[in-house]
Design a protein that fits this description.
Elements lengths: L1 H103 L11 E6 L5 H9 L3 E6 L13 E3 L11 E4 L5 H9 L4 E2 L3 H8 L1 H10 L7 E4 L2 H10 L4 E5 L11 E2 L6 H13 L7 E5 L4 E10 L3 E10 L2 E3 L3 E4 L4 E7 L3 H4 L6 H7 L2 E11 L2 E8 L6 H8 L4 H9 L12 E8 L8 H7 L4 E4 L7 E3 L2 E4 L2 E4 L5 E9 L2 H12 L2 E2 L13 H10 L5
Parallel strand pairs: 1-2, 1-4, 2-3, 4-5
Antiparallel strand pairs: 6-9, 7-8, 7-9, 10-11, 10-15, 11-14, 12-13, 14-17, 15-16, 17-22, 18-21, 18-23, 19-22, 20-21
Helix pairs in contact: 3-4, 4-5, 6-7
């Protein structure tokens, strides 16, 4: 019974539960719409809030980006302003120096008299210097022998067809290459003021063996070297004396830059292969050459101007970049660019070029002379002389010179000592070329480069130096046939600053098919450490 009653109670409880549930459901239903509405009302607000937060984040990002852009623009504007300021200062310095020189040279009647310069060239190498001297206010006449180069520098300076007819007109006669030694010596004997050339200096560059022997006479270290006129003898020599050698043409063949070869293999097999190839292809042209023992180290050149009696002004330390492509890859070009600095006398100069002072004085040489060397921990070993203006070296030197050019070269030619003022810091130059450079191919030049226009994005010619260029009807155009177009220079307190300025100026140039190296001056980081460690720059 009890159990039966219990079951009934459970049923009654079960019967009440649905009613209670219904009541509860009703209550829940009443609440639900309110809660759902609240939730629905809250979601858009939350979304709006989140959207606002996102907008603020985006705005903050934009503001940050805008601020960064403004900082960059401000920095760039400051750099441009500083560069413009420096350009103005340089112009003012030169202007003041020129005015001072003109004032000193003013005759009794009060008129200012400029110097008269006659530039004489075989292959139109010196056009940039002639133009810069003219821009100072001096009178300039320019003679070019080679018919194919006669239009070079046309429109920039006055041309003449017979330089000898103007030798008495000139205050200073300037020869731009070796080969003028005898005539330069004769003109000096006549009392003419001449820059460039002497028989002795020509031979220093043209005859490698002679140059090395002259260095040995004055106690300068030289690398072992052997001269040959026969390929078979040279091949036999390397076979009997395996090692790394540098093949260097002598005489006129030195102008064929692609013939110079630096051996890479310790057994000399690559040099043997090169000589065998030259025997087949170049036997008639390359009949005098030198094998020089290869030496590892820093390639560095030291140069200075000579007034016929002694060295003048600071010395010029420079680093040539001879190969065509960045990383020193490709054919030899002579130079694709150079990094440099002016300096007081140092060990590099004292142990090499300075020892040649008495010999140069005895020959009466006047002009620039440069000695390219290999330096290492064991010593400094001169490789070759450049007894003339260097190209593009002279354009690079102009970047650093502050003294009036007319004054300086007049004093130099007259055998006078001169306090040449130069900029502190470093200079870099970059050669801009077009096909067929560095090769001689008149047909390729006519096809790709002849009369091509040179344009500048901005009308700023600071650091722009002419190569084989002419000025026609308001346009700069390529001329000659070499493809050697422009030299662009830059200066700075550090080598990196000089590089940046030079390459910024390069970016301003537009020439169809132009090319240039992008790494001029980069190796200074390593080279300077080594040269300072060995004590050669003090």
């Amino acid at each position: 019974m009890a159990a039966g009653n219990h079951d009934n109670d459970e049923k009654k409880g079960d019967e009440k539960k649905p009613e209670e549930k219904k009541e509860e459901l009703k209550k829940e239903e009443k609440k639900a719409p309110v809660e759902t509405k609240d939730a629905a009302e809250k979601k858009p607000e939350e979304k709006k809030e989140e959207a606002k937060k996102e907008e603020k984040k985006e705005e903050a990002k934009k503001e940050e980006k805008t601020a960064e852009e403004k900082r960059e623009e401000k920095k760039e504007a400051a750099e441009k302003k500083e560069e413009a300021k420096k350009a103005v200062e340089r112009r003012e310095e030169k202007k003041e120096a020129i005015e001072k020189r003109m004032e000193e040279k003013k005759p009794a009647n009060g008129e200012k008299v400029p110097y008269k310069f006659l530039f004489v060239s075989l292959e139109a190498l010196i056009g940039d210097l002639a133009w810069q001297v003219k821009e100072e206010g001096n009178e300039v006449k320019y003679y070019i022998r080679d018919k194919s180069e006669k239009d070079v520098a046309g429109g920039f300076v006055e041309k003449v067809d017979d330089w000898k007819a103007h030798k008495d007109w000139a205050d200073v006669i300037v020869f731009d290459d070796i080969g003028f030694g005898q005539v330069a010596d004769e003109l000096r004997k006549e009392g003419k003021a001449v820059v460039g050339g002497s028989v002795y200096a020509d031979k220093l560059e043209d005859d490698r063996e002679f140059g090395q022997e002259e260095l040995k006479k004055v106690g300068v270290n030289v690398l072992p070297h052997w001269d040959f006129k026969d390929f078979d003898a040279a091949i036999e020599f390397v076979q009997k004396n395996p090692g790394r050698y540098v093949v260097k043409p002598n005489g006129e063949a030195q102008n064929e830059k692609e013939l110079a070869y630096v051996g890479q293999e310790e057994d000399g097999n690559d040099v043997i292969n090169i000589l065998q190839h030259y025997k087949k292809s170049w036997a008639k042209k390359l009949n005098d050459f030198q094998l020089q023992k290869y030496a590892q180290g820093v390639e560095v050149a030291v140069g200075a101007f000579f007034n016929g009696k002694e060295f003048v002004g600071p010395i010029f330390v420079n680093f040539e970049h001879k190969k065509m492509f960045p990383g020193d890859i490709g054919p030899n070009t002579g130079e694709m660019g150079t990094s440099s600095f002016w300096a007081p006398s140092n060990k590099l100069f004292r142990e090499t070029l300075e020892r040649m002072e008495a010999s140069l004085a005895a020959s009466g040489y006047v002009g620039y002379i440069d000695l390219n060397c290999i330096a290492n921990a064991k010593g400094i070993y001169p490789l070759e002389f450049t007894a003339r203006f260097g190209y593009p070296t002279i354009s690079l030197q102009l970047e650093g010179m502050v003294s009036p050019l007319g004054d300086f070269f007049y004093a130099l030619a007259k055998g006078e000592q001169y306090d040449l003022k130069v900029r502190k810091g470093f200079q870099v130059c970059v050669v801009i070329a077009v096909p067929p450079f560095p090769f001689t191919d008149p047909a390729a030049f006519r096809r790709y480069s002849e009369d091509a226009i040179i344009l500048f994005k901005k009308p700023n010619l600071e650091g722009v130096h002419i190569g084989d260029v002419k000025y026609v009807e308001g346009d700069w155009r390529l001329s000659g046939q070499s493809g050697y177009a422009l030299v662009i220079t830059g200066s700075g307190q550090t080598m990196d600053d000089a590089r940046k300025q030079a390459y910024k100026r390069v970016e301003n140039v537009m020439i169809p098919n132009m090319f240039y190296r992008t790494d001029i001056g980069e190796r200074w980081v390593r080279d300077s450490d080594m040269l300072h460690m060995w004590g050669y720059l003090y």
